[in-house]
Design a protein that fits this description.
Blueprint lengths: L2 H8 L2 E7 L2 E9 L5 E12 L5 E11 L3 H19 L18 H11 L10
Antiparallel strand pairs: 1-2, 2-3, 3-4
Length: 124
């Protein structure tokens, strides 16, 4: 089988959900026996202090024999959360337009920290 044929076979059907720093990929794939299964991949972007970044990925494989039970439990879990906590996002930091604001107490704490002398281990 040519490489292009294999790539086409792998990309049977896909959907992407972008959610802040996370991206979810839902892919229908084929087994060697040409049966279908689903992969769900969570990809999360991490930025280093130097500006470089990397992604951490977690993947689950979901086979047809588990679809019904999986969907049932997922429905129960999402209903439980929505019934107990509603649809409102409680944590502001998970919202796309969240900007961290410092209170005056935190600013005072930061200014006190800067009054300390930086000592190297070799100075002791």
């Amino acid at each position: 089988m040519r490489e292009n044929d294999m790539l086409e076979k792998e990309e049977i059907f896909s959907k992407v959900l972008r959610a802040g720093r996370r991206t979810y990929f839902f892919d229908v794939r084929a087994t060697k026996a040409d049966d279908y299964y689903i992969t769900i991949t969570e990809s999360k972007k991490f930025t280093e202090e130097d500006g470089s970044f990397h992604f951490k990925k977690h993947k689950i494989y979901l086979y047809k024999e588990d679809f019904s039970s999986f969907a049932e439990i997922l429905g129960e879990m999402t209903s439980y959360v929505l019934n107990h906590k509603g649809e409102e996002v409680i944590s502001e930091r998970h919202q796309k337009d969240f900007k961290k604001e410092y209170s005056s107490d935190k600013e005072e704490h930061v200014s006190h920290r800067s009054s300390f002398t930086d000592i190297d281990f070799d100075d002791i």
